[in-house]
Amino acid sequence: DAGITQSPRHKVTETGTPVTLRCHQTENHRYMYWYRQDPGHGLRLIHYSYGVKDTDKGEVSDGYSVSRSKTEDFLLTLESATSSQTSVYFCAISQGMYEQYFGPGTRLTVT
Amino acid sequence: KQEVTQIPAALSVPEGENLVLNCSFTDSAIYNLQWFRQDPGKGLTSLLLIQSSQREQTSGRLNASLDKSSGRSTLYIAASQPGDSATYLCAFYTGTASKLTFGTGTRLQVTL
């Protein structure tokens, strides 16, 4: 398995609170991604990074921000969580136009 | 915008059957294609990657093909086993930065 960990694995938070999810890799891959998976919508890209401090928006980026200060860490922040952000969040890594490898996921519930 | 459809949405077969999962896409300007499996409550496991210059890729009992002209990819599973029960997802790389567009998934159940 690719060396990808996500923390926390489960989180329950209240509407309006800030939340930060962490993705950590040990593979030294250049690209990192954040997806969310929802019933009826499948997997959708939130943000991605193509290098340290280089990030861009994906398909569903509203309400989310990201940061990448080191190659191995990619943080996803919900500035003010809403119930519509209840989802399973997956981090992925790749070395360019090749296979993406996924982390185990974080289940986030916003009450 | 690339749209990716997987048919059927769900499939139940007896153990030992050979089966085909279909994935169709609307934009032929794709690069690579990747098939994944996802077990309930788990992350995605990469099964096969077909690069744009290839037409198929094989791994064990799995064979995936890519036909860009017809906008289709198929995943063939030979001699299915109960352990193959999972959701299978296809995803296409388009544009830059290796961004993936995912299909809707096929939920497979292999019964004894």
Task: Provide structural commentary.
The complex is a heterodimer of chains A (111) and B (112). In chain A, 37% of the residues are buried. Helix content of chain A is 0%, strand content 59%. The mean pLDDT of chain A is 94. The radius of gyration of chain A is 13 Å and the shape is globular. In chain A, strands 2, 4, 5, 6, 9, 10 and 11 form a 7-stranded mixed sheet that branches. In chain A, strands 1-3-8-7 form a 4-stranded antiparallel sheet, with no helix packed on it. In chain A, strand 4 (31-38) and strand 5 (42-51) form a beta hairpin. Chain A contains no helices and 11 strands. The termini of chain A are far apart. With 111 residues, chain A is mainly β. Chain A has strands spanning 4-7, 10-13, 19-25, 31-38, 42-51, 54-57, 64-70, 73-78, 87-94, 101-102, 106-110. In chain B, the strands form 2 sheets. In chain B, strands 2, 4, 5, 9, 10 and 11 form a 6-stranded mixed sheet that branches. With 112 residues, chain B is an all-beta fold. Chain B has no helices and 11 strands. Chain B starts with a strand and ends with a strand. At the A-B interface, strand 5, strand 9 and strand 10 of A face strand 5, strand 9 and strand 10 of B.
Question: What's the gist of this structure?
Answer:
Helix content of chain A is 0%, strand content 59%. Chain A has no helices and eleven strands. The model of chain A has no long low-confidence stretch (mean pLDDT 94).
Radius of gyration of chain B: 13 Å
In quaternary terms, these chains amount to heterodimer
| Strand percentage of chain B | over 45%
Secondary structure: number of strands of chain A:
11
The N- to C-terminal Cα distance of chain B equals: 41 Å
Helical content of chain A, roughly? under 10%
Question: Can you tag this structure with a few keywords?
Answer:
heterodimer, A: 111 residues, seven-stranded mixed beta sheet, four-stranded antiparallel beta sheet, 11 strands, 0% helix, B: 112 residues, mainly beta, six-stranded mixed beta sheet
